[in-house]
């Protein structure tokens, strides 16, 4: 019989995974979004396609490549060896790598859209007022792109929480390390323990509803206050 | 009247001759053997088989939710018994078609003294099938417990969804070792394996059962008979299984 106290571990783990993934995605996604929005490079379209790929790829494809890449023969194994490990598969760090790739378009796209919508005018004005590009980026571009950052953060976080296929392939179902919510639900359903499955699923349903609802509210707020 | 009899006989013949489709739920450890058996069965009978694979526990759950399987080839006796008890399977149709063996498998060619390998713990991960749904995972834990190494190794265990994924974890070298079914490695020259002595785990008797969904499908009865026959048992033995007739319940 499942112990109800066991439900906390996957919940905590999932929130940690989604939190860390979202922070990393904001850190690497913002410069990518900025570059995609401003660059005239001939590589721009190619990079844009690569960033969008996880949106359409089956999780099994991502999981398959990750399994090889994280393993001893891949870069993941090399990184793991620095810390005395052998493979990044079956580790929390491995899941972070997987989630970052899996949720990348959900963060980059909204931020890029906001940068695009802003146009180059505000930055030109900032420049004529003597702001350095770095300064203008932080004091003008980022505040103006606030709705995009908000949407990107929420989508990146929730999409990571909903991740299943990739984790199933590279996780190894380890309690407290890789057994996230979706896997815990899957295990319970597969073994007909429907009471805990119901608790976790209903929780997810409620959580998702609240998130999407508040996102709509916030979008309306931003539109009314003129961003 | 003659015409009527003719039509009746003709209908009867075509009914018995007509090729049927049969859906079989197969525990993953038996995958390769089941493929070979169903090929032989199709050649012998004109019927076609559709095999679905999963861990025994997963398949049982699907059956209990009225999945359209007609025959269930499990990796234990417990789940087929349950399907009979819960009225998803036909009383008296259950029999042991194979008894499984568990091996410790590694891509490393020199798994010479596996006991020492396990004791020294010079590895980061050991893969087993998820014991909640996979009988081979249960056996793997019994082996470690009987070697008094379970507590020591517990933090290194990663769980495959079934024995196939467990094998894959080892094959991709993401885990150095794994407990899998003998049938998965017996026909391959990759890596090395250690056949775990029988006294270290309870027998893995694998039962087949006719599901209620297949009660009107002649192919289901024929398949179960075929599974008991010499051609199938020969294939089963080739994959390293014990045969039900010499190792009864």
Q: Uncertain spans of chain A, ≥5 residues at pLDDT below 50?
A: none
Provide the β-strand percentage band of chain A. Answer: under 5%
How many angstroms separate the termini of chain A? 52 Å
Quaternary status: heterodimer
> How are the strands ordered across the major sheet of chain B?
2-1-3-10-4
The CATH topology of chain A is what? Answer: MetI-like fold
Q: Could you explain the architecture of this structure?
A:
Chain A is mainly α. Chain A has one domain: Orthogonal Bundle (MetI-like fold). Helices cover 77% and strands 0% of the residues of chain A. Chain A is built from 11 helices and no strands. Chain A has helices at 8-38, 44-56, 59-70, 75-82, 92-118, 121-128, 133-144, 146-161, 165-170, 181-190, 194-224. The longest helix of chain A has 31 residues, at 8-38. Chain A is globular, with a radius of gyration of 20 Å. The mean pLDDT of chain A is 91. Chain B is of the alpha/beta class and 249 residues long. The mean pLDDT of chain B is 90. Chain B is 42% helix and 21% strand. Chain B has 11 helices and 10 strands. Chain B has 2 domains: 2-99 and 206-238, Periplasmic binding protein-like II (D-Maltodextrin-Binding Protein, domain 2, 3-Layer(aba) Sandwich), CATH 3.40.190.10; 102-195, 3-Layer(aba) Sandwich (D-Maltodextrin-Binding Protein, domain 2). Chains A and B meet through helix 3 and helix 10 of A and helix 3 and strand 7 of B.
């Amino acid at each position: 019989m499942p112990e109800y106290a066991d439900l906390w571990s996957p919940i905590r783990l999932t929130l940690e995974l989604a939190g860390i993934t979202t922070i990393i995605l904001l850190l690497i996604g913002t410069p990518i979004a900025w570059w995609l929005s401003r660059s005239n490079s001939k590589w721009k379209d190619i990079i844009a396609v690569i960033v969008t790929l996880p949106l359409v790829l089956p999780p099994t494809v991502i999981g398959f490549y990750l399994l090889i890449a994280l393993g001893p023969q891949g870069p993941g194994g090399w990184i793991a060896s620095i810390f005395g490990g052998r493979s990044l598969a079956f580790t929390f760090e491995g899941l972070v790598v997987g989630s970052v790739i899996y949720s990348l378009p959900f963060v980059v796209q909204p931020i890029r859209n906001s940068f695009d919508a802003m146009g180059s005018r505000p930055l030109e004005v900032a420049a004529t007022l003597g702001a350095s590009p770095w300064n203008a980026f932080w004091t003008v571009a980022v505040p103006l792109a606030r709705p995009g950052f908000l949407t990107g953060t929420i989508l990146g976080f929730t999409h990571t929480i909903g991740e299943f296929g990739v984790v199933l392939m590279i996780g190894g179902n380890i309690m407290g390390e890789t057994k996230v919510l979706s896997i815990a639900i899957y295990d319970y359903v597969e073994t007909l323990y429907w009471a805990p499955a119901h608790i976790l699923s209903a929780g997810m349903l409620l959580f998702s509803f609240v998130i999407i609802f508040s996102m709509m509210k916030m979008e309306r707020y931003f539109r009314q206050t003129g961003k | 009247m003659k015409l009527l009899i003719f039509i009746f006989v003709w209908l009867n013949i075509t009914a018995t001759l007509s090729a049927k489709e049969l859906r079989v739920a197969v525990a993953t450890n038996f995958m390769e053997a089941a493929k070979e058996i169903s090929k032989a069965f199709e050649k012998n009978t004109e019927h076609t088989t559709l095999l679905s694979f999963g861990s025994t526990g997963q398949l049982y759950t699907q059956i209990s939710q009225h999945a359209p399987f007609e025959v269930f080839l499990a990796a234990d006796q417990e789940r087929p018994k349950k399907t009979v008890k819960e009225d998803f399977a036909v009383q008296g149709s259950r029999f042991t078609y194979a008894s499984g063996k568990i091996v410790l498998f590694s891509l490393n060619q020199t798994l010479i003294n596996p006991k020492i390998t396990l004791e020294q713990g010079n590895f980061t991960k050991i893969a087993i099938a998820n014991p909640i749904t996979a009988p081979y995972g249960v056996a793997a834990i019994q082996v470690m417990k009987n070697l008094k190494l379970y507590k020591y190794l517990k933090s290194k265990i990663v769980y495959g969804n079934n024995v196939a994924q467990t094998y894959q974890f080892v094959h991709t070298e993401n885990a150095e070792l794994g407990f899998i079914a003998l049938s998965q490695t017996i026909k391959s020259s990759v890596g090395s394996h250690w056949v775990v002595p029988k006294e270290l785990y309870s027998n893995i008797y694998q039962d087949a059962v006719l599901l209620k969904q297949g009660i009107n499908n002649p192919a289901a009865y024929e398949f179960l008979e075929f599974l008991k026959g010499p051609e199938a048992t020969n294939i089963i033995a080739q994959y390293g299984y014990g045969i039900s007739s010499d190792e009864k319940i």
